[in-house]
């Protein structure tokens, strides 16, 4: 794993492996967050907020950036605090604290906007794929799988305040994705049904509560500050 440009607080395996889609030869995707040294924020140039590599596939966000993403319920970033225990590779004390406050990031509007928005992106990508070509056909199936996943995860999160990352029936989602890849119009009813359910009153608050994240981030900054020696 690529070392974080600071202190790694939480790192886990995400993507197809986490969802249950992985097959022989599938890439291993990792997502994490790190704390930059607090004193690095005191100069003219702020530390980098993200580090992304493709070999291996690792995305690391600085703690403050991750919190901002999570407060919008960004599906890719937010799943880091909902992984099954066996998928975490780094889980320090401050990472544990973040997992404990994960529901404070939730809001009905953000879940509705983010999950439907990302699902719609997958749908639009699906429409541009030439499924007569084997390579683009596989990509179309991947977009379709993730469309189904995002819709089902978003509705479940909206209705239960639980984000189930490891899908209970990945084979069903994979098979549905194959059908949608061949007949993209099939996804329109799925998206419409999700939009209708997400328009109903749910269990989530209308806005997130940023106070736990703010308090957590201040603890992170205090823990990673080294006073000057001169």
Mean pLDDT over the residues: 93
Q: Note the beta-strand portion.
A: 5-15%
**Straight-line N-to-C gap:** 35 Å
Can you write the helix and strand succession as a string? EHEEEHHEHHHHHH
Shape: globular
Gyration radius, in Å: 19 Å
> Order of strands in the sheet with the most strands?
3-4-2-1-5
Write the layout of secondary structure elements.
Elements: E1 7-14, H1 15-19, E2 29-35, E3 50-54, E4 57-62, H2 63-71, H3 75-78, E5 88-91, H4 93-100, H5 108-127, H6 134-160, H7 170-182, H8 186-199, H9 211-223
Parallel strand pairs: 2-4
Antiparallel strand pairs: 1-2, 1-5, 3-4
Helix pairs in contact: 5-6, 5-8, 6-7, 6-8
In short:
With 230 residues, this protein is an alpha+beta fold. The protein contains nine helices and five strands; from the N terminus they run βαβββααβαααααα.
Please characterize this protein's 3D structure.
This protein has 230 residues and is α+β, with helices and mostly antiparallel strands. Helices cover 49% and strands 13% of the residues. The chain has 9 helices and 5 strands. Strands 3-4-2-1-5 form a 5-stranded mixed β-sheet. Strand 3 and strand 4 form a beta hairpin. The protein is globular. It starts with 6 loop residues before the first strand and ends in a 7-residue tail after the last helix. The model has no long low-confidence stretch (mean pLDDT 93).
């Amino acid at each position: 794993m690529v070392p974080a440009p600071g202190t790694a607080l939480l790192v886990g395996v995400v993507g197809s492996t986490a969802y249950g889609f992985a097959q022989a030869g599938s890439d291993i995707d990792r997502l994490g967050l790190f704390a930059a040294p607090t004193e690095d924020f005191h100069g003219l140039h702020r530390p980098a907020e993200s580090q992304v590599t493709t070999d291996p596939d690792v995305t690391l966000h600085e703690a403050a950036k991750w919190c901002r993403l999570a407060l919008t319920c960004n599906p890719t970033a937010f799943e880091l605090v909902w992984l099954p225990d066996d998928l975490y590779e780094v889980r320090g004390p401050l990472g544990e604290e973040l997992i404990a406050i994960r529901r404070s990031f939730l809001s009905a509007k953000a879940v509705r906007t983010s999950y439907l928005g990302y699902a719609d992106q997958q749908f639009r990508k699906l429409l541009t794929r030439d499924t007569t070509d084997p390579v683009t056909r596989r990509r179309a199936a991947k977009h379709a799988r993730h469309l189904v996943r995002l819709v089902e995860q978003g509705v479940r999160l909206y209705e239960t305040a639980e984000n189930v990352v490891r899908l209970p029936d990945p084979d069903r989602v994979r098979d549905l994705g194959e059908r949608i890849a061949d007949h993209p119009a099939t996804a329109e009813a799925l998206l419409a049904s999700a939009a209708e359910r997400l328009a109903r009153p749910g269990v989530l608050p209308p806005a997130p509560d940023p106070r736990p994240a703010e308090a957590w981030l201040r603890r992170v900054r205090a823990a990673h500050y080294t006073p000057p020696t001169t």
